[in-house]
Amino acid sequence: MKELITITKIMFVEKRDIIISIFCGFIAGTTAIGLFALSGYLISKSALVPPIYTLMILVASVKMLGIISALSRYGERYFSHRGTFTMLSHLRVSFYERLEPLAPSIFQRYRSGDLLSRIVGDVETLQNFFLRVFYPPIVLMFVFLSTIFFTAFFSIEVTLIILVGFILTTFIFPAIIAFKQRKVERRVRESRGELSTEISEFLFGFRDLKIYQKLEIKESRLRHSADVYLKEQEHESVHNLLSESANTFLSLVVSVTVLAFGAYLVATEQLDGIFLAMLVMVSLTAFENTTSMSVFPSYLEDSRQAATRLNNVVRTEQEYETPKKSKEKLSITKSPYIRVNEVSFAFPDETRDTLSDISFTLPPGSKTAVVGPSGSGKSTLMQLLLQMYPVNQGEIYINNQSLNSLSQESIWKNTNVVLQKNHFFYGTIRQNLMFAKNGLTDEEMKNILEKVKLSHFTLNDQVLEKGENLSGGEKQRLAIARVLLKKAPIWLLDEPTSSIDALTEKYIYNYLFKEAKKDTVVLISHRLTGLESMDQIIVMESGRIVEVGTFDELMEKKGYFYEMKQIEQSVF
């Protein structure tokens, strides 16, 4: 049950509500038993025609217990649910705080649909942890201890019968159910994750499925996943109903045993007959509380599985992320010196190195191009410079500070980044540009749009989700506009103009390098044209650096870069 330890710690942040709800639950349970016990005694006593004041006292006591039971039951519901909602709030915040540093590497290990299923569905599942798992056994234990203590004054034999029934319905039977429940709950959760994944892929890939006329195949897989999930839910419901029915039947057997054995004790004059109805009512009412234990194994396994799935997402943080203690902040006002020293890297769960023994330097204010065929490790190198992944071997330094000793946020704050795929949020052009930095004026944003040849847009123009109403070139120019507004001293550009025509590309590069004249720039590119002005060119192949030099030096060398250039000229 170690998976639930974290959830329990988060739950006890609101220990005041927990203690009050347990107290109210105990009062509600004991007063309910007292109410029915007194009712049984009242019925028996009335048959003997007692004095009227005796009946008045008994009736008044029954009413008082009914009022107390109702008020305490309300308090129990109020404080237990308030504590649960607060616990869920703390759980979401705690999980997000542990999950957020793992992005974007988390997407290498989990499909988006499965991740969404865990974040939403599993967190919601844990709302039952306090109400159905942690809370009922504690209250039930206190209530039964009080009940056993009360019945012991009237009959030790009946007390033993109730105690045995309590052990059977609260411990032994739920343990048997829990053993069988684990497999059922795991299948339900796995089928739900599979369905969520199929739905997300279906929605994201709907256009491509239509184009390639594979929509029916994907729909059939989606229906199959939905059918499997429904069948597993049905199996789970049947299992829960069977458990609840069996537990109720067992409780009734105990109460019937109390009645039969109590009648025997009365017949043998070992028990006053006036107490028989009271003891039977005590048994019936007490074992009504054990109904919650019939579904206890289901909720316990459900909560354990949910906690396990959530912990599995974030437990690898220490394995894949650098330690977060004593992180320094990168503080620079001008272009830094960057050194990459014998760096090797492999993605999580991959045995093949994506980068091997990479070493180079980036002098302050230098302009460096990283070129090579697709899959040579250029984009991976950029991710390491952004500390999105920790290096497996070697070190990366910024002004003699190890990248591992710097916080990610401070690195990103001082870096202008254009990725191959840039995200655009639903809203307006203005809202998407405002991400660059605070305090931007409309005039500044309009000027930048003009510089990147997007003057046909207004700041109020709509941007759909993921920029669906923008062309590939417009997305790249809008991304470049954002970094031009940010004005950080380090530039990391990964194929920033791959979808832009040659004339516009030349114009934008001229303006970009003018703005970054004193900054350190790293440009990743498949194109080899326009690299004559770069201070150095790093040529990569299969995760290794094969050549380094200026454009003229590499052309004179007639090595790998020269061959790439000749091929490009012959093709284009």
UniProtKB/TrEMBL annotation:
<dbReference type="InterPro" id="IPR014223">
    <property type="entry name" value="ABC_CydC/D"/>
</dbReference>
<feature type="transmembrane region" description="Helical">
    <location>
        <begin position="249"/>
        <end position="267"/>
    </location>
</feature>
<feature type="transmembrane region" description="Helical">
    <location>
        <begin position="133"/>
        <end position="154"/>
    </location>
</feature>
<dbReference type="InterPro" id="IPR027417">
    <property type="entry name" value="P-loop_NTPase"/>
</dbReference>
<keyword id="KW-0472">Membrane</keyword>
<keyword id="KW-0547">Nucleotide-binding</keyword>
<keyword id="KW-0812">Transmembrane</keyword>
<feature type="domain" description="ABC transporter">
    <location>
        <begin position="338"/>
        <end position="567"/>
    </location>
</feature>
<dbReference type="InterPro" id="IPR036640">
    <property type="entry name" value="ABC1_TM_sf"/>
</dbReference>
<dbReference type="InterPro" id="IPR039421">
    <property type="entry name" value="Type_1_exporter"/>
</dbReference>
<dbReference type="Pfam" id="PF00664">
    <property type="entry name" value="ABC_membrane"/>
</dbReference>
<feature type="transmembrane region" description="Helical">
    <location>
        <begin position="50"/>
        <end position="72"/>
    </location>
</feature>
<dbReference type="InterPro" id="IPR017871">
    <property type="entry name" value="ABC_transporter-like_CS"/>
</dbReference>
<keyword id="KW-0067">ATP-binding</keyword>
<dbReference type="InterPro" id="IPR003593">
    <property type="entry name" value="AAA+_ATPase"/>
</dbReference>
<feature type="transmembrane region" description="Helical">
    <location>
        <begin position="20"/>
        <end position="44"/>
    </location>
</feature>
<keyword id="KW-1133">Transmembrane helix</keyword>
<dbReference type="GO" id="GO:0005524">
    <property type="term" value="F:ATP binding"/>
</dbReference>
<feature type="transmembrane region" description="Helical">
    <location>
        <begin position="160"/>
        <end position="179"/>
    </location>
</feature>
<protein>
    <submittedName>
        <fullName>ABC transporter ATP-binding protein</fullName>
    </submittedName>
</protein>
<dbReference type="InterPro" id="IPR003439">
    <property type="entry name" value="ABC_transporter-like_ATP-bd"/>
</dbReference>
<dbReference type="Pfam" id="PF00005">
    <property type="entry name" value="ABC_tran"/>
</dbReference>
<dbReference type="InterPro" id="IPR011527">
    <property type="entry name" value="ABC1_TM_dom"/>
</dbReference>
<feature type="domain" description="ABC transmembrane type-1">
    <location>
        <begin position="19"/>
        <end position="302"/>
    </location>
</feature>
